[in-house]
Structures are given as structure tokens and as C-alpha cells.
Design goal:
Layout: H1 13-36, H2 41-89
Helix pairs in contact: 1-2
Keywords: Membrane, Transmembrane, Transmembrane helix
InterPro entries: YiaA-like (IPR038972), YiaAB (IPR008024)
Protein name: YiaAB two helix domain-containing protein
């Protein structure tokens, strides 16, 4: 067993900055691409709405996945604590 089996992982500031910059570049590139496409205004509007919906649903999906992962960690910690309590209370030499 490792010393810290359920140690929380934390992203570094550099990783957070890289992720934010990458998101900003990708989002800006999509918006600029939509604006400069040779399309009618309603076609650009459709692409813009689809892009915004994609971004918002991506954030929602990431939050749901994170919440499920955290919930499973809490359940496993509770189960481990119950097992440790049972083992600590168990006396193999106790006569029933």
C-alpha cells in the first residue's frame, strides 16, 4: 500500500494557466472563424449558437464527471473507515 492512497491531486498554476490560455485561443479562433466565413448572418448566428452551446455543455459535463469522482472517493473512504472500525473492535480470542 502506498503512504497516501487517497491524496488529493492539485493542478499547478502553470497547468491552470496553460489550460486557460488554450481555451481562450480555441474559443477566440472559433469566433473569428465564424465571423469571417462567407456566410449569411443567420448561418453565422447558427454556428455561434452551436459553439456557445458546445462550450457550456462541456463545462457542465466536466463538472458532473468531477462530482461523480468526488462522490465515489467519499463512499470508498466511508467504507474503509467502517472496515477499520470492525477490525479494531474484533477480538479473535473473545469467547462468545
Amino acid at each position: 500500500m502506498s503512504n497516501t492512497p487517497n491524496a488529493p491531486t492539485k493542478s499547478t498554476q502553470a497547468f491552470l494557466a496553460q489550460a486557460a490560455i488554450a481555451f481562450g485561443i480555441a474559443f477566440s479562433g472559433t469566433i473569428v472563424g465564424i465571423l469571417y466565413l462567407p456566410l449569411d448572418i443567420w448561418q453565422r448566428g447558427f454556428l455561434l449558437m452551436a459553439g456557445l452551446f458546445l462550450v457550456s455543455s462541456t463545462f457542465t459535463l466536466a463538472k458532473v464527471v468531477r462530482d461523480q469522482h468526488e462522490a465515489s472517493r467519499v463512499h470508498s473512504r466511508i467504507d474503509e473507515a467502517r472496515l477499520e472500525k470492525l477490525i479494531a473492535e474484533h477480538d479473535p480470542f473473545k469467547v462468545m
